[in-house]
Design brief:
Length: 227
Amino acid sequence: MPSANTPKEIRYTPTPNLVFGKLLNEIDDINELKFILRIVWMINQVKRVPKYVTLEEITADKIVHPIIKAKSNTEMNSTCLSMIKKPQFSNLLICHDIYTSKSTNTVIAFNTDRNQTMLIKTDQLDKSDAVFQPNGDVSEESPNIFKLYEDNIGTLNPIIADELKIAETTYPYAWITSAFKESVLRNKRSWNYIKTILENWRREGKNDGRVGKNSKKSGYNEYFSRR
């Protein structure tokens, strides 16, 4: 019989291929590997656009603490930052300092052209708080994108299910529910339609004051005007 502790479903975390190729060959310290894998997991958990974690969030993480074994907060910050900035990780991660009137914080994201461009636009960054499950689990209260699809669109198939998994780790849940609502209100009940809405919001900025300010001027409204 299955164990009572068997999870109802296995959750997956997208991981850059670089981690399993060149980096896996170069990393000799098991704690460095644990540290990098934890950061990859944390970046994938956040619902910000673009996806990033702050140095403060990393140093406060309960799984990172026993890996670093620092004696003070200052040592914790400097050790984490030094590890992230190692040359061997430069193709995987980028660091960017965000300055506000009250403080300075370092954010860490995957090293992509898009992230490099978006992280510079400090005033447009989504600065909502991230919520991490300490053991790497997902809260039972986490919203289910599959139920959203079945309730509003129809029966799932394996191809759509895979796309939904990607969307769930890419976009804030508030965006996903808003996109579903748009499709229902406009009587365009298809995943392609919803995906196009999300892609436009990601590219142009959703007009909610958090990410971008151009959604009224391009992509989003132009797309709907053609439908």
